[in-house]
Design brief:
By secondary structure, the chain is α+β, with helices and mostly antiparallel strands. The chain contains six helices and seven strands. Helix content is 45%, strand content 17%. It has a five-stranded mixed beta barrel with strand order 2-4-5-7-6. The longest helix is centred in the N-terminal third of the chain and has 54 residues.
Length: 314
């Protein structure tokens, strides 16, 4: 009977000890389980559930990643679409300028090939713009005391030749000026600002002057555009970096703003000033071929960026 009592007591102690140990281990395990593990476990359970029932399931984290990825793609497409559109637009503009200049060159060539206009048969010219890029013959007198020097400029084609002072340097290696001189028309008394041609810098104070009345051939042109970086003219010092018909007419004290013309005849070989050739008056400083090459460059750049954007953000 005594042994049975001791055995019963030992069994109860063993059971109580096992229960206490199990409780401690369970509490410790629960504390070590993180929220992320609980969420993962719940996600696995839901995936198993939906997989068994045939329903579609995606966890909230996967859905967020997919949304962010799609949003990034649209942002990238929009960001790269701007330079693509800009470069394509520049290509369109260069193409337009190419065709405009081709058409303008054809018009100028046609006008110069027509018969010359004799201003000696007109008592007055009302609209000088109607004579642009047409050959005009006129009789009158240069006022060399009011000559203006536009420059410095490099020599035009054929501007440097073998003259009285010996063999000069090659074209473009010596700077000089274009001589713009007021010319009074004999018949009407009107004035024209005539570019007689180019002279080297060293000849500014000593270049050949025509004397008396003479008959010349001109081509009337619009006022040449000044460069964006050209310094300002200083009429008080007779310093001209660009042609300004209004300021030049005021400097020469002409009664009205005079039209501008290029002298093309006479052109005595080996002498200065050297007038421009007809081809120089027809062509543009930036040629149509240059616009065409720029257009091709912009189009290729736009196309390359479009292809790269497609493969990067598809």
């Amino acid at each position: 009977g005594e042994l049975g009592g001791w055995s019963s007591m030992i069994s109860r102690i063993s059971l109580n000890t096992r229960a206490w140990f199990t409780q401690q281990v369970t509490c410790s395990y629960r504390q070590s389980v993180s929220r992320h593990q609980i969420r993962s476990g719940a996600g696995c359970f839901l995936q198993c559930y939906y997989g068994c029932t045939g329903r579609r399931f995606s966890s909230s984290s996967d859905g967020g990643q997919e949304t962010n990825s799609e949003r990034s793609k649209w942002i990238g497409r929009f960001a790269f679409s701007i330079p693509i559109a800009v470069t394509f637009g520049l290509g369109v503009w260069q193409s337009r300028r190419y065709f405009e200049k081709i058409e303008e060159i054809e018009v100028r060539t046609t006008d110069l090939s027509k018969h010359e206009v004799d201003l000696d048969k007109r008592s007055n010219v009302e609209d000088w713009s109607a004579l642009l890029y047409k050959k005009v013959t006129v009789t009158g007198t240069f006022d060399h005391n009011l000559a203006m020097f536009v420059g410095p400029r490099s020599a035009p084609t054929g501007g440097l030749t073998q003259g009285g002072s010996g063999l000069m340097s090659a074209p473009g290696k010596e700077s000089g000026f274009f001589v713009v001189t007021p010319f009074k028309v004999k018949q009407s008394g009107q004035w024209i600002l005539v570019s007689r041609g180019w002279i080297p810098r060293r000849m500014r104070e000593n270049y050949p002057l025509s004397a008396g009345e003479e008959r010349i051939t001109l081509v009337l042109t619009p006022q040449p555009k000044a460069g964006s970086l050209a310094p300002k003219n200083d009429p008080s010092q007779n310093s001209w970096f660009s042609v300004d018909l209004s300021a030049m007419s005021d400097y020469a004290r002409l009664p009205e703003v005079a039209p501008f013309a290029e002298l093309i005849e006479p052109a005595t070989p080996g002498q200065f000033p050297r007038p421009k050739k007809e081809g120089d008056l027809i062509n543009f400083y930036v040629t149509p071929v240059t616009h065409l090459s720029y257009a091709a460059t912009w189009y290729m750049l736009s196309g390359a960026m479009a292809v790269a954007t497609y493969f990067r953000f598809r």
